[in-house]
Design goal:
This protein is an alpha/beta fold. The chain has one domain. Strands 1-3-2-4 form a four-stranded mixed sheet, with helices on one face. Helix 2 packs across helix 4. The protein is elongated. The N and C termini lie far apart (56 Å).
Amino acid sequence: MRQRRIAGCLGLVLLLSSSVLAATYSVPEDKQDEQKILFGSASTFEKPAEVDYKEVIMATPEYQSIKKKKVPTGSAKYWILMSQASDHALRTIAGIGDDTDYDLIAVKGFLGELDEPIEATDITEDVLAKLEDE
């Protein structure tokens, strides 16, 4: 009986300590930029990541089509393909967010440039690999 109480208390202590160890972050409201938050909520998050968005866009088949077919910059076809490339990149990034415990994914450098910088894991290679596997 006594061993069960000790085990129960130990389990409670471990549970409480693990919840205390998980840091919760937030981007100050006046610094939140929806153009730089690609997945998740900047108001509250625990496991941030960052991605080189330009590199991901350039790796999409839509962007590669622009280069291969030499679509003139600024043409209607160019903007349609760039919009599709952006949508494809965002879907892939969101997929990484859904498949992992990263609850915020931002444009590379954004979180580090805050007044109180927030360290984030660079997941660019993971996103590029997922794009390649599609």
